[in-house]
Amino acid sequence: MTRFGIIGGGLMGHGIAVALAQAGHHVAVFDADPATLASLDERIARALERCAMPPAGAGPVTARITAAKTLSDMVVGVDAVLEAVPERLDVKQQVLDALEAKIPAVTPVWSNTSVLSLTEVGKGMRHPQRLVGVHWWNPPYVMPLVEVAPGAETDRRFVQEACDLLTGMGRTTVRLHRDVPGFIGNRLQFALVREALHLLEQDVCDPVTIDTVMRASLGLRWSSVGPMENADFIGLDLTRDILVSLAPHLSAAVTFPALDKPLDAGHRGRASGSGLLTWPPERGEEVAERLENGIRRNLVEP
């Protein structure tokens, strides 16, 4: 594969385009929103600046990414297509239906869904055997992990092909045995988020304290030793004893009052200026920069 089409040029779509172009692939990006497409070049340039890429290196990368005005333009000559449209099942199914009418039956289709069942995403496809879940992490041009999973009808050769290409790009590629909503990373991440919200609802602490605890303990540990290795390290007997004692007190909630309250008041987080925390205008950019710098620090070998 040398040429990719990407449907959806937003947060993930443009970032994946940068990651693919950095690896030498050519990418055509289509988005149904003209404003999103019009800002593509600017956002790609900003991403490359954050990668600390000098202009001499950024030029060739930028040249490998083009904006396609229509879906038909995007699919010309592509070896594979990746959808990175909003995380709504109906939207993804509609996009895949339109896409399949324009590409050969053998062209691989990758879905960047992060929480939906890939099998459900592929329902109604003419050729669901070519659909592969390829979940990149944000920002894709910095985060090394890509999770790859089959749907119920996926031909495993398409999964292997995706894994081989991503590994060849230097990505940390993990292959799931089967389709599961949320892949691995988001299931782990949002189990922690659910417990954090539970602590707020029980008035144990405030949001800043939760972030402080995470960044000064688990965030430092988990970049070096994962939870399975740590369970063995401290001993499975101790791990079981802790779980037996603690598990009855952990949240199993499926509703989230700590989120409902600010949302009902119109507080959505960064985009609205407040949420669980306050967000003055400059904070979003500061957090994005801190996040990427922190990831890069953790990627540097000691």
Descriptive overview:
- GO terms for molecular function: 3-hydroxybutyryl-CoA dehydrogenase activity; NAD+ binding.
- Residues 182-279 form the 3-hydroxyacyl-CoA dehydrogenase C-terminal domain.
- It holds the Pfam family 3HCDH.
- This is 3-hydroxyacyl-CoA dehydrogenase family protein.
- Keywords: Oxidoreductase.
- The longest helix has 17 residues, at 185-201.
- It contains 14 helices and 8 strands.
- It has 2 domains: 3-175, NAD(P)-binding Rossmann-like Domain (Rossmann fold, 3-Layer(aba) Sandwich); 186-299, N-(1-d-carboxylethyl)-l-norvaline Dehydrogenase, domain 2 (Orthogonal Bundle).
- It has an 8-stranded mixed beta sheet with strand order 3-2-1-4-5-6-7-8, sandwiched between helices.
- It starts with a strand and ends with a helix.
- Helix 6 (89-100) links the parallel strand 4 (80-83) and strand 5 (109-111).
- The model has no long low-confidence stretch (mean pLDDT 95).
- The protein is globular, with a radius of gyration of 21 Å.
- It has helices at residues 11-22, 34-38, 40-50, 55-63, 71-74, 89-100, 118-121, 156-168, 185-201, 207-222, 227-234, 236-246, 257-264, 283-299; strands spanning 3-7, 26-30, 65-68, 80-83, 109-111, 131-136, 145-150, 172-175.
- By secondary structure, it is α/β, with parallel strands linked by helices.
